[in-house]
Amino acid sequence: MGAYVLRRLIQSVVVVIGVTLVSFLALQIGGDPTYLFVSERASLEEIEAARRALGFDRPLHVQYLSFVGDLVRGDFGQSLSYRQPAMGIVLEALPATIELTLFSMLMALSLAIPLGVLAAINRGTAWDGSVTTFAMLGQSIPNFWLGIMMILVFGLYLRWFPISGHVPFLTPLIAGDVGTAFGNLPRTLFHLVLPGLAVGTYSLARNTRLVRSSLLEVLEEDYVRTARSKGLPEKRVLFHHALRNAWLPVVTVIGLEFGFLLGGVVVVETVFSYPGIGRLLFAAINQRDIPLVQAGVILLAGIFIILNLLVDLIYVRLDPRMKLAGGRG
Amino acid sequence: MSEHGGVGAGPRTDALLAASRESDFRRELRRAARVMVDARWPVFAVIFLFLTALAAIFGPLVAPFDPNRQNLVLRLADPMTTGPDGGVFWLGSDALGRDVLTRLLYGARISLTVGIAAISVGGTIGIIAGLMAGYFGGWVDDVVMRLGDIQLAFPFILLAIMFLVVLGAGVWNLVLVLGIGQWVTYARIVRADTLSLREKEFVEAARALGDSTPSIIFRTILPNILAPLTVIASFNVASVILSEAALSFLGLGVPPSVPTWGSMLAESRDTLVANKWWLAVFPGVAIMLTVLSFNILGDWLRDFLDPRLRERT
Predict the structure, then answer these.
(1) Residue B75: left if φ>0, alpha if ψ -120 to 50, beta else—which one?
(2) Confidence of residue A184 (pLDDT cuts 50, 70, 90)
(3) Residue A198 and residue A278: Cα distance in Å, rounded?
(4) A141-150, B161-170, B214-223 — which one is most confidently predicted on average?
(5) Which of B183, B186, B163, B160 is closest to B242 using CA atoms?
(6) Fewer Cβ atoms within 10 A, N terminus or C terminus of chain B?
């Protein structure tokens, strides 16, 4: 157990170093990165001055070490379009993105388990057919297009839900203003419905399939047959025996799921003009504001790595078999 | 199947083996067709993909207009509008008066080319890395697998965004980035299969006969592990097409002059509130049906190659 935790920690550190290396190299891959930071009409002297100011005239390994040093101090450089520290701008947009990601993840998981169970216990019937068809479709629809379609139907035609905007919940909560936060909550959720569905549908579809197939597998295990032959009611067999093992694969992918959702959030936020990191990245991409793109990407990647680490550590506690085996190979 | 190949067989046995392999092949083909027809949907998927491929290849010949020809009089024309020169905008026109159907046909080129090219790049890297890791083991294995872990620990779309912002738009940049995004999946599967094949008798036999290591890896092991990869490839084309659409939507795909389904959707956002639905509906349907077809095809291939899976699920 201890050895596993230690190994997992070292692995995370290696991954973090990998991420910094990749983000650093990404800048260098197109040739001299100075040109990304100066205007197209800059004179040769201006380019030379910028190169020296940004430190691109130094040897690569020196540049990398100073890049990492800056990162450790939380310095991601100045945003080119905002003329402010890039990290500050990204951090301001972070709570909105977390709200959207959590909302879609909770929605996806809370619906995937009942739907998967419904399909598995009614295997081969119309229920199963509709759920699997829905899951197949859900995995094939581009999330941003789903967002556009929902704006057309539920926003513009039926006028049930708002098609853009965001009411903050986490920001006042962090500031200590609990009253405002919970006063906002109903409207926060209301604004999250459409973007949340757009982001979460892919995960919902995939996890539904996962729960269904893993439950079908578990239902054929010996211990389930034993439980049945003892004369236990089917409900008890299902909930106390089969399901406990059937959703373990879902728990394993929660961390990875978060990564997929973050990817979806980046695109879907743009569709809904939702003021999170995704929309910020989109604007930064279009203005070629490289420090801002880097800050956003590195922050999201960092969150993803930490979450995956936490999920893995929690998983060891959840599954007793892992403790016996001394962790995963 | 004929995985124990004709090691040291004389010419007559070779002919016999070839004959039996031939009938094996026919039998497999028949079984493939039967599984496909039984499942119904794969038939539609294949037909749709065939038509999309035709559109991608012959699109320019059948397209009613030039994809970039602007018509400022007929901007945002409804579907089925007839232009002054008698040309019909079957699926309407966009904010610059360009024909939506024509752009859809050209968009099929990008989606299919990028999808298949990216899989070829990722598949080649992944297969070679997996074969090396599985066959040689030791530090080669460690390096390959840890690199894969690092890549998977990083949300792929973020990686793609970072590289494409610097590299700039372009089909081949897109193919490269999306391809590199896929190699780990192939490497992991190929490694596992190679590990188990490495100790099999027919590989031992090849080694005993003095075959060179590259020959053992590429001519003895590789042909026997290709089948399951086709399943992965099919699902992967689907997800690459989705990623391509998303990146094009963000403005990171191909240059704006090249019509793609993703960039058409990006442009449709400006006219959404004015209820110009056709600009948003048709490219999305095209992406969805193509991705759906590849997913259905992947399911079918898996059922066909591993009937046990079908019995279980």
Answers:
(1) beta
(2) confident
(3) 14
(4) A141-150
(5) B160
(6) N
Strand pairing partners for B89?
B81
Taking alpha carbons only, the member of A274, A109, A258 closest to residue A191 is A274
Which tokens belong to A250? Answer: 């879902």
B40 and chain A: CB distance < 8 Å anywhere? no
Global confidence as pTM: 0.83
Report CA torsion sign: A59, A62, A64, A70.
negative
pLDDT per residue over A76-111, tens digit each? 888 888 888 888 899 999 999 999 999 999 998 889
- Distance, in Å, from the CA atom of B10 to the CA atom of A254, rounded to the nearest integer, reads 56
Residues in chain B: 313
DSSP summary character for residue B270: G
Within 8 A of B165 by CB-CB distance, chain A residues are 26, 285, 288, 290, 293
**Are the beta carbons of B104 and B282 closer than 8 angstroms?**
yes
SS3 B188: helix
**Contact present, B259 and B67 (Cβ < 8 Å):** yes
CB count within 10 Å of CB A130 equals: 14
The alpha carbon of residue B80 is apart from the nearest alpha carbon of chain A, in Å, by 21
Query: What topology does CATH give the domain A87-326?
Result: MetI-like fold (1.10.3720)
Ordered by start, the domain boundaries in chain A are: 10-72, 87-326
How many CB atoms are closer than 10 A to CB A77? 18
Contacts of A113 (CB under 8 A, 6+ apart): A207, A211, A247, A250
Confidence of residue A321 (pLDDT cuts 50, 70, 90): low
| DSSP code per residue over A223-286 | HHHHHHHTT--HHHIIIIIIHHHHTHHHHHHHHHHHHHHHHHHHHHHHHTT-TTHHHHHHHHHH
B79-100 pLDDT, tens per residue? 766 666 666 666 677 767 677 7
Q: Which two tokens stand for residue A36?
A: 């990304």
For residue B210, the 8-state DSSP code is T
Are the CB atoms for B52 and B112 separated by under 8 Å?
yes
Residue A327 pLDDT more than 50? no
**pLDDT at site B310:** 47
Q: Residues of A with CB below 8 A from B268's CB?
A: 148
A55-68: string of b/e by CB count within 10 Å (b at 16+)? ebeeeeeebbeebe
| CB spacing of A266 vs B269 below 8 angstroms | no
